[in-house]
Automatic annotation (TrEMBL):
InterPro entries: DnaJ_domain, DNAJC17_RRM, J_dom_sf, Nucleotide-bd_a/b_plait_sf, Pre-mRNA-splicing_ERAD, RBD_domain_sf, RRM_dom. It comes from Clytia hemisphaerica. GO terms for biological process: spliceosomal complex disassembly. SUPFAM superfamilies: Chaperone J-domain, RNA-binding domain, RBD. It is found in: Cytoplasm; Nucleus. PANTHER family: DNAJ HOMOLOG SUBFAMILY C MEMBER 17. Residues 91-143 form a coiled coil. Residues 246-276 are annotated as: Disordered. PROSITE patterns: DNAJ_2. This is J domain-containing protein. The lineage of its organism: Eukaryota, Metazoa, Cnidaria, Hydrozoa, Hydroidolina. It holds the Pfam family DnaJ. Residues 250-261 have a biased composition (Basic and acidic residues).
């Protein structure tokens, strides 16, 4: 490592300072190690060397004796830097002072050598003994990398469920939101298939997101959903349209035959129409189970906020 630490600043490698606590050093190491880990950078041939450099810096700065030796080297270097700066300013004026400074520099150089040798000895000791704290942190990092890979590999199509954006006329001051609420929207759209979620905007009247279990259901809803008779829906369109890979010919054929075929277009509904109790009970049980998933609700709300921002901008 650069001749016992002479050309390496371990604080700069980790992105911390001499005043940083061990907790801050640990946090800085973990953050950089996660981004520089060879598994995260398979195309970077220098990733392994950088990771080793980070590990050595961590070992030095979390060992009190090695850190003290390194700090002494830094202090000596800083003194030499200041001495050289002062020397350059005054060298033309004071020849005698130059000689004194050269003598002092020689003495400090010997101190630098002693400090560097001690640091090199500490580095050698740590390499031979290993660092328990470094090993623990690397195990944590490996575990986190595996979790990240697992989460990425187990991503389901649930994030890609078809979603519709629906709009209707409603003034800002209308507390009834144009006659629409979650139950009314469920009643309207569940006629075309299984509705997995309904989210109504709390910031903007006349805007909601409908999520379906299958793309075929959503397609039928786009074509036939009308809304309330006295306040029809003005927009029923895709918010997230499924890709072709999500719809197999077999699935579409079964969906068309068993679930999405309707004899004629939907007739407009009367305001606040009462749902069939038994059907609503089964439906609500299914929806409640899904809506208890906090992450799903958060994701839908974020999509709605994005749509609100887009609508406001346009």
């Amino acid at each position: 490592m650069g001749g016992g630490g002479k050309s390496v600043n371990y604080y700069e490698i980790l992105g911390c300072t001499q005043e940083s606590s061990q907790k801050e050093i640990l946090k800085a190491y973990r953050k950089k190690a996660l981004t520089c880990h060879p598994d995260k950078n398979p195309d970077n041939p220098k990733a392994a060397d950088l990771f080793i450099e980070l590990s050595e810096a961590f070992k030095i700065l979390t060992d009190s004796e090695a850190k003290a030796a390194f700090d002494k080297v830094l202090a000596a270097k800083e003194k030499a830097r200041l001495r050289t700066k002062a020397f350059d300013v005054k060298r033309k004026k004071f020849k005698e002072d130059l000689e004194k400074r050269e003598n002092a520099a020689q003495q400090e150089k010997e101190i630098d050598i002693d400090a560097a040798e001690k640091l090199a000895a500490e580095i050698k000791r740590l390499r031979e003994e290993g660092s328990r704290l470094l090993k623990e942190q690397q195990e944590i990092i490996e575990k986190q990398l595996k979790e990240d890979a697992k989460n990425k590999a187990t991503t389901t199509n649930e994030d890609l469920l078809p979603k519709l954006k629906v709009k209707w006329k409603a003034k800002k001051t209308d507390h009834d939101n144009g006659g629409y609420d979650e139950n009314i929207l469920k009643e309207i759209f569940q006629q075309f298939g299984v509705v997995t979620a309904v989210v109504i905007s709390v910031k903007k009247n006349g805007l909601a997101i409908i999520e379906y279990a299958k793309p075929s259901h959503a397609r039928v809803a786009i074509e036939f959903a009308k809304g309330l008779e006295d306040n029809p829906l003005t927009v029923v369109t895709w918010l997230v349209e499924p890709s072709a890979s999500q719809e197999t010919p077999c699935e579409e054929k079964v969906a068309d035959k068993k679930e999405t075929t309707i004899p004629e277009p939907q007739q407009p509904l009367e305001p606040q129409r009462v749902l069939n109790p038994s059907y609503e009970e089964d439906f609500e049980a299914m929806v409640l189970k899904r809506m208890k998933q906090a992450e799903e609700r958060k994701r839908l709300n974020q999509e709605l906020q994005d749509e609100e921002a887009f609508t406001s901008a346009t």
